[in-house]
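Reply to dn_fold:

You asked what the input looked like. This is it:
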Amino acid sequence: MKQTVVGTLVAAIFVVPLTFCATCILTAVPAAIAIWLGERLCTRAMTFYAGSGVVVGAFFCALLFKDIGWLGAAFVLAGCPAGLVYWRLAGRYVGVD
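and this is what came back:
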């Protein structure tokens, strides 16, 4: 019982934050490239940002697991709404001063 509690605490204190940081770092670079490209092209297209989210999700899955299998669908399905949220907050105002 005591080992289970200690293992859970170790996971909560070390593993979860490290996984979160690694995920943020690995997805920030391709997302920043997609955002830069959208700004550079001055595109306000919702499909560009949704597609960029899908590509970033698939890229991260391929980078993490070396294969885009059934788990890749979860990353792609998470990337699309993430791209749409970015479009809703900032992408639709590209080029507007």
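Residues 53 and 79 are 4 Å apart (CA to CA).
Hope that clears it up.
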